[in-house]
Each structure stands twice: as structure tokens, then as C-alpha cells.
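Assemble and predict.
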Amino acid sequence: MTDNAKIRVLIAKPGLDGHERGARVIAYGLRDAGFEVIYTGLRQTPAQIASAAVQEDVDVIGLSILSGAHLALTKQLRQQLAARNGEDILLLVGGIIPENDIEALKQMGVAGVFTAGTPVSAVADFIRRNTKKAA
Amino acid sequence: MTVNDWDKLVSGVKAGDVRSLSRMITRVENRADGWKKAMQQLYSSAGRAKVVGITGSPGAGKSTLVNALASELSKRGKTVGIIAVDPSSPFSGGALLGDRLRMADVAVNPDIFIRSMATRGALGGLCQGARDVARILDAFGKDIVLIETVGVGQDEIEVVKTADCVLVVCVPGQGDGIQALKAGIMEIADIYVVNKADRPGADEVVADIEGMLSIADQGKDDTAPVVKTAAATGAGVDALCNTLFERLVHARNKEQWLDKRVREEILSLVETQIVESLLSAWQESGALNKMVEAVIQKKADPYSLVDALLPDLSKEALNRQAARATKTIQGPENS
Amino acid sequence: MKDDKNKDQLCPHEEQYLDKVAKAREQWEEKLINPRLKRFNMEKANTRFYTPLDRAGSDFLESVGFPGLYPFTAGNSPLEFWKVHARLAAEMGFRPDWGGTRGVGKYGGFGTAGDYRDYLIRMHSMGRKGGPNIAFDLATQCGLDSDSGQAVGEVGRVGVAIDCFQDFATIYEPYTGELEIDKVPSNFTINAPCCVIIAMYAVLAKKRGISPAALRGTPQNDILKEFIARGTYIYPPGPSLRLFRDSLVFLREKMPLLNVNSMGGYHIREAGATREQDLAFSMANAAAYLEAGVEAGLDVNDFAALFTFNAFGGSMEMYHEIAFQRAARRVYARMLKEQFGATNPKAMIIRQPITAHIGCSSTTLQRPLNNWIRAAVGGIAAGMTGAIPGVFPPFDEPLGLGHSIEATQMQFDATRILLYETGITDVLDPWAGSYFMETLTDEIEAGALAEMDKINQMGGTVAAIESGYMQKAIARSAYEKQKRIEAKQDFVVGVNCFTSELELEVSINRDVEPTYDPALMATAEERQIESLKKMKASRNNRAVASLLNTLKSHAKDKDKNLMPDICDCVENHCTLQEICDVLREVFGEFTQAKL
């Protein structure tokens, strides 16, 4: 029997930041890496992201934030995920994240921070290493 | 997945837990060990939901329509499950599932559950997969399940055939009108929806469809209605909903059609099961590889190889097997 | 229209000569190229050489002309003030920051209006007296007040928070006397709710007893690129263009010294577009704005002269960016003349503060000092396209925490070196007539025109946006580029090549001038919400409700200009979101097309 399990990833842009290039490139790239990528577009509230992540039973959430609001938005998302029993989902953050904030994000439960210039293959590898496909 | 894990999921679904619902969908979609037993357990809780298929060519605004329809259904007190299907990449096996993007309005409505599914390239596998997911949503308690497909592949048309009611969505301005839609799609419609009806050419599309119907339906007592909508603004969705409810107690629920669908599902399960079991045995024993080699080396032809290796498929043997199995099925005579 | 390389139009003398060149070229390839291809085992050489053959049949006067004359390929002007005063600038040690009192100051904005005002006061005390060049926060750019649920975490972050006229007026408190608003210009990087900000500017003048007709400056007012590349939109494209029309008519009538907009493909290219897409989409957008003006009954020779461009995109490919600028000027001029019947040269030129550059996305996070040389390439390209050879951005742009004074110093000096030591600006359009550069210019133009044609077939830029065509095209180009870099088909030094441990990460001390106290940032949102609450309690809420109602009913009439109503609303302390929400009710909100 063929192994049908696919890694499912939700790529989301929370808040009002409108720069989509990175998120779209990652979405295409992870699709070409064999993942099923749910892309929800701009202006997602943390509630919408958490709700989608749980409904889609994704293995990974990738947040793309370039507006500087990453700490506030990540915190809100963690709360929304907790309320929906989705804290086990691997959480990654990308975009413009100052070095000083990376530790704070990790404390919040972010598993990996991928800033500009990170090759898509590195993100895909990280995901593969850190997820267990549903059997 | 242990039996215990499955049990927990099944009871979670029956109890209305969203996390259990989405986890169960994943494992059933993946055909994780034990999935069939779990579906057996759920089966009796299902059967109440109405399944509505929505298809039509890309750019018709199906996702926007699904969003508007789900929103309207929710206003009328219905709970809704949405299955949004998108194609998998034949090269990487991955997929970009983007239908949710057009459903932001209903994304945090607690009565609405949206699940994106990729076709995963399997032939005929999609039909059963979506049917199963719809059934899980049904058992969870959803009143209505909307299945949105792309409408350009045979798979997608098959999926839609599992529905109680099929909406075919057209838009004005798509080349030579409804001719553009693949043959077969137009014939399965219970309701024709002309979306983006605020654009020029909408009335022409309606006329085209009605014209086609008047030719095809001569002598029939019931013609599929044509409804205009502009899903982006919500226009016409109220009327569409009314028409939908009317059709749901109509044609497709008649005995004939139910017979057809159940028959189709059983045959599909049989087909998949046989192929899977056979191929699994052939692969494990190395027989399949040997067959492939033999054909490549031109030492044998595929027809005779398959005939030689298939188990006894003589009419007598199969009839005996069927007779034995039938005795175990509970029917009206022996219940 | 490409130059016609129709050999039938050549005179016999020219044709004879070209035959000679063709033969000579063949011999050259035989003698020098082919043996090398063989020796190096190559199918094709990875170099090129251009000759008169590439320009056969071209007409210099038709395709290039003279700087300052149609079709402006060679430049907008034969002699610019900065060139005239270059010697004086050097002798006086001129520093380009803060614009003096003739121009706008440094682009910025953060926190509450009071925070930003206090910052401007500090700047003025340091002699930096340029007019406000305002960055607004994302909530403001999206037509939301600071107390909106969607604004959480965003208030005062990428710009200043403006919820109401009071906030706007607060920023201008230091602009009195020699800095009065009729003496210094203002820039507003605002698009979707641009009408509201323009209204605030007009009402500010009114309250100060100054005629709005004396105000100068530039609102960005380029909503179409938001749908394509920048993402701060509110309403669908149709109603957005209606609002643009309203602003255009209002500005021409009431504030004729104000530029109408600041358009261009900069964001489009940064979002991943190719050069041809950059130019094509920019032109398609410009055409939509021009059409809005024409449909409103305005004279294109008048209003188009107040259209400006922010910038187009850039890249490290120097030749191509030079050619791009030349092609852009020609395409725009021809469009204005042939499609819109313009005759006023001022209405046909691309008025932009900078020309060629490398684009911020060409800078790297790895070995960031290298961005200095990268930016210098952009400066060289700019110098060869009729502009100051501006070196941009400062090397620490990708580090994301503000430009350090060291990086800024290096940026200024690099620009000065190019301007004063190389002589590149002594010759106008130095590549004019070059067999190579004219061919490249034609190619870029042709690519852009083909794309513009495609968009026209779709029904114009609005249709292309609504169908998601432009967004998808850009996303694909961005992905293709990423794939090329990851596959090492394109090299980026320090990123995917020359990255061994032997390579040194050279760094220098970086002092970023503190602009905004983090302690203030931490409380900006709550302070802003508090002040908004107070303002709402102290205003005439009856008048507010009534004016919003009027706005709503007028919005339903496509022919009504909403600017007077918006001015009334603003003057009576309706908030930005209250105004925008009324329009949301009438126009609906834009939802993206699928990827």
C-alpha cells in the first residue's frame, strides 16, 4: 500500500502587512517539495489562522510578518491555538525579525525563525525533520 | 494508530469535538491502518446530512459562491461542512490549496467547517475519499456538506456524482459560453448557477442554458432551474438557497438515484479493495517486478501475464464465493 | 512602436556598408569565435558584441531625439539645477539630508501624532527643517482606527497613527512662521484613504487662514499598485478609481500646486515582477488614472503635468536598468501623445526624484558591507540616465533596524565620488546611439508593450487585477527567481557562492540615531486609543452622524465628488475609520483572487 500521508502546511500573513512575496515563494516552494500547502492570503486574524490550522489539521503553521508586529501577533496566535487544542502544531515565523526578538519568539513556542535569504529547501528540510506524518 | 486511538477519535467526532473531526479526516484520507473499521463505526451516525456538489470551470467564482452560500445557510440555522478540492502537482505530489482564501467570511463561524483536499493523483480514489470525508462531516452533525471541485477533470465530475444535489456554475464572458464546459458536466446539474451576473452577457448565458435544456429535456417533467447570482456581493444567494432546498427534496433523492449511488459506492469499494490486495501481494512477493522485467525484455506480453497470475476468476468459483457471502448479509428476508 | 528595421528603407550606400559589416562579422566569428568555442567546448559564447547591423534601419530622431524633447528617450531635460549648482554644492559641503526648507524632510513617522511631532521639533532644533514626509502606520493605511481589533500590534509601528484631524494637526504644530505650511511642502505615503488625508491637509490650511491653493507636496495616491504588490487596499478597484477621480478633480481645482500622485513600479518589481512586467503594469496603471481624469472632463495637458512617479524597480543588471529608464520615458511619452493626445511636454515626461537603482531586494543580509558596492552600481546607472548618481540604499538596509550614520555617510560619499570624480554626468544619455544600448532599450520596450497589449485584451488594468492575473504573474516571477538562486543559476556573492569559512565577514561599528524611544513605542497603542476615546466624547456626535449619513448617500451616486463631504467630515472630527467604514458599506471591500 502506498504511503498516502502528506505533510500539510498553513502559510499565513497575520495582521495588516501587505508584502506577500516571501509567503508566496514559500507556498510554491513547499508545494514543489511535495507538501500540501494551504495559503490563506492577507489580513488574517489570529483567530482565523488558528481556526484554519485546526480544521485543516496541518502539521506546520508558517507566519510571514514584515511589519514588526511579530511579538504581539505570535502571542495572540498561541492563545487562539490553545483555545482550540492546536498547540501541538509546529509554529514557524518568517519575514523581518530582528535578532533580539528571536529568543522571545522561541519562548512563546516558535520552533524556527526563518528570515530573508533562507532557501526554501532549508525550510522544507526543517519541516521534514520536525514533523511526524500521521500514520 | 491503535484501535484505542481510533476509538477516541470516533467518540470525539460523535461528541462534536472539532480537533477529533479534523484528525479523523486526515487519517481516513491517508488510509491509515484501521480506517475502514472506524468508518464502519461512524456509519450509523451518518445519513442525515445533505451533500451538495459545486462544480464549474476555473474563474467561475465557485469558492466565492460557496462562501456566500455557506454564510446564508448558517443564517438559516444550518451547520455546514465544506470540502474544497484542488489538484495535486503531478510532479511533486504536493498541492497549493487556495480555496480557503475566498472563504474568509465564514472562516471563524463556529457552525462552518472548511477542509481543503488535494486530488493526490489517485484514479477513482478521490471519489471515495471525498465521500468518506463528507460522511465524517455528516456523522459529526453537519446539516449540509458542500463539495467544491474544479470541474475540468473526470475525477471531479465523479465526486460531484456522490452528491444529493449538483450545482454547475457558469459565468458570462468565458469564450463561447457554455460550450466551453466539458461535456458531461452540464448533464449532471440539478441547478445551473450563472455567477458574476452583474457582468455583461449574463442574460445570454441564461438563455444559452435554457435553450440547451429545452432541447434535451423534451418530455421530461422537471427541468433544472437556472439561477443568477453575484456571489461577491451576495446578490441572488438568498434565492439560490431557496431553490437548493426545493431541489434537495426532489429528483436526486428518489429511490432510483439512491440505488445508483449506493451501487456505485459498493462497486468502488470492491474495486479498490481487490486492486489493493492483489497489488500488495504481487509487490511483496516480487511478482510485479518480475512481470515488468519480462515485458521490458520482450519475453512476455502484459495480457497473458495478468491472466496467468490472477487467482481463479472462473464464473463457478466467483458464484460460489458470492453465494457464501450473501448468506451473511442481513436483508429484508432474513433480518 | 519599434524601429522598423526594414532594409527596403535603407539607401544603397547604407546597404552596401552593412553588407561589408556583415561579411566582416562572419570573418571575425570564423577566425576568433569558433576556434575558442571549440577550445573551451562551448556551444555558444557567453559574451556578445553589437554592430551597426543590429541598428539597421533605425532612426535616431524618431527613437532617441534630444534630451528634453519628445520622445524623451535621452532624458527629461538638457540641464538640471543640480548639475548647474554642483560646484557650489561641493564648495559649501552640501548634505542632502532633511531637504532644507525648500523640500521635504526624511521619510518617517511612528507612534502617536504627539510622539512624531516631538521628534520633528527635535529635528528642527538640529537645523533639519524639511517639510513633513509622513509614513503612516498600517492601521491608518488600511482605513482603520487605532482601537480597531485588526489594528492590535500595528498602531504606530511602521508609521504614525492618524485617527482624526486632531492627530494630523498635531504633527503640524511645529510648522509655523518660516515653516508655515504654505512655505514647506508635505509628502503623504498614503493610498487607499488618500482622500481623507488630502482633506485633512485642506482643512488644516483653512483653519490657519491659508488658501489650500498655496499648498505644495505629493500624496502617493496610487491605489492600483496596492492590489498588485503592496497590499494596503480597502475597496475594490472600481470604487477606488472613483475616489482617485474625486481627489484628482479636487486637487486640480482647489490645490493646483499639489502633485496628484506618485506612481510607479517600484513596489511591483520588489514584489518579484520582471522588468517588462514592472514597466507594463506601471503604464497600465497610469493609463487608468489618466482615463479617470479624461472621463471627468479634465484636460490631460493640464492634469498629467501634475502626475509624478515615485520610482520604478531596479536590479543589479546595470545595462538593463539604464535601458529600462530610456524605454520607460519613451513608452510613457508615446502613450500620452498617441493614446491621450497630449501636447504639453510637461504632461508627457516621467517626473521622478530618482531614476535607475538596484532595488532594495538586491541587498543581502549576508556580508552587508557588500551592499555598498551594490548600491554604487545603481548610482552609476542613475548617473547614466540623466539623474544625480544616487547611491541607494545604505548598506545596512536589510538589517531592518534603521540606517546607521556610518552607512548614511558612506552613501553620501559614494554619490559624491560618482558625481564629482568620474564625470559620468558630464554627458547626457552617454549611451545614445550605442548599437547595444539602443537594441536593449528596444527589447525592453517591446516586452513591455506586449504585456500591455495582453492587459488591454483583458479589459485593462482593473480586469487584470480582479482576475488575479498581475498578482499571479508576479508571484510566479518571484518564485522563478528564487529557484534560480537556489539552483545556483544566478549567483549572489556571499549568499550562494564564495561562502566558505575562508571568507571574512567584514563589519564596522554601526550607530543608528535613535528616532523612537522603545518605551514610547510600548505605550503608543494604549495612549492613542485613550486620546481617540477622549476626542470622540468631546465632539458633536450628532453632527458626526449626520455628516457620515450625507457621505453615504452621496457615495452611492457615482457622479458625485466626495471630497467636499469628506472635508466636512474631517473638519467635524469624524474618524478615519468612520469615514472609511461608510464607504465600505457602499463600495464593499476588495477580496484577493486566489494564488
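Chain A has a mean pLDDT of 92.
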